[in-house]
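Researcher: Next entry in the queue.
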Amino acid sequence: MVGLKPPEVPPTAAVKFFSAGTAACIADLCTFPLDTAKVRLQIQGEVRIPRSTNTVEYRGVLGTLSTMVRTEGPRSLYSGLVAGLQRQMSFASIRIGLYDSVKQLYTPKGAESTGLLARLLAGCTTGAVAVTCAQPTDVVKVRFQALGALPESNRRYSGTVDAYRTIAREEGVRGLWRGTLPNIARNAIINCGELVTYDLIKDTLLRAQLMTDNVPCHFVAAFGAGFCATVVASPVDVVKTRYMNASPGQYRNVPSCLLALLLQDGIAGLYKGFVPSFLRLGSWNVVMFISYEQLQRVVMLARSAPP
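Model: Structure for this entry, 307 residues:
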């Protein structure tokens, strides 16, 4: 058996909440450069206001990472990490940590097992609530990840706190919630493609007794969840990234951002950065779900240990 044994007493909602946030931070630390590469590839070719002639062209995941290290230094790979960790502690704690509790609310009393509809509703609910609470941190994270693609004279923020203040001052408080609707759509889709897929694959493997409830099972379920989530969420993710990174007045609304993208790049533009998205989301899911399952067991063992 690989990893800790499942606890005899199921983890409480508080334990899941804490474990989800911590596990997501661990996953972010491991995969953040891939996320930054994904953002750079997604905004590449975007018409900027004002226009800039000093642009760097990125080619592929490894090419993007090597170009960033060469032109901006290794620290650029983790630009926006502070906001990213702030986001995960609030965002992942809600959307992942409260998923099981919300799933039970949607499950009819007396039902032997949770149906697909209840799982989908739980994924949409926790995803939407999490985005509403954590959107400002996501806006700042995306702005910082895209910052290095701009000339130094156009870089607007000196730090994370300055970014929050500047956005609120120049764009109003609503600027911190910029792109909330596409982000809610994205995370409702991701939660269904990620959490529900993980839930279903894990349940199927355990019911068929193909694997035991431990690390190998969690790895297989998490990898499948990462692939499904990337396929269904990439189009929304590209639009969300461009809209949140846009200069004030560049796009009237989300549909105008989508239209500009389609006119410029066609349908293929909706899957810009797919490879880094999958590498990032696939690896992120594997690290996060394995850490999440093990952290729950560590906390429950610590709580049940005699004083």
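Model: DSSP finds eleven helices and no strands in the chain.
Researcher: Noted, moving on.
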